[in-house]
Amino acid sequence: MTARVGYRRIYEEATPQDGKRVLVDRLWPRGVSKERADLDEWLRDVAPSTDLRRWYHHDPQRYDEFRCRYLAELEDPDHEAPLRRLRDMAAHDKVTLLTATKDVDHSEAAVLAQWLDGS
């Protein structure tokens, strides 16, 4: 049985309810030290490609298309190992996916959380 997968901004304080904290951004977030991030893992290889990230530019009107394109990218064999790692973590612990994005409900973290809860 898969544990619940959540997501939130990395700029928020870590809590015990986070479980495993996994950064899913390709770039390290500005102004966050590695100590303050309190990460269990940084899986930058599950992040959207640079081209997709630049195209999306966190425009909520493009979210549905971004989601479709990102899910298609996740089918690429390059994502197999990090996605397996995420699934394994979620099978044993609560996992919180972290992103620097201001609008977390329209982010790769939201897409990944939904994907993990459904897989």
Structure description:
By secondary structure, the protein is α/β, with parallel strands linked by helices. The protein has one domain. The chain has five helices and four strands, in the order ββαβαααβα. The chain has helices spanning 34-37, 50-56, 63-74, 80-92, 108-118, and strands at 5-9, 20-23, 41-42, 95-99. It has a four-stranded parallel sheet with strand order 1-4-2-3, covered by helices on one side. Helix 1 (34-37) links the parallel strand 2 and strand 3. It is globular. The model has no long low-confidence stretch (mean pLDDT 93).
Strand order of the largest sheet: 1-4-2-3
Structural domain tally: 1
Unreliable stretches covering 5 or more consecutive residues: none
Determine the mean pLDDT.
Answer: 93
> Structural class, from helix and strand content?
alpha/beta
Order of helices and strands: EEHEHHHEH
Shape: globular
Largest sheet, described in full?
Answer: 4 strands, parallel
Query: Percentage of helical residues?
Result: 25-40%
Strand count: 4
Descriptors for this entry?
DUF488 domain-containing protein; 5 helices; alpha/beta; YeaO-like; 39% helix; four-stranded parallel beta sheet; 119 residues; globular
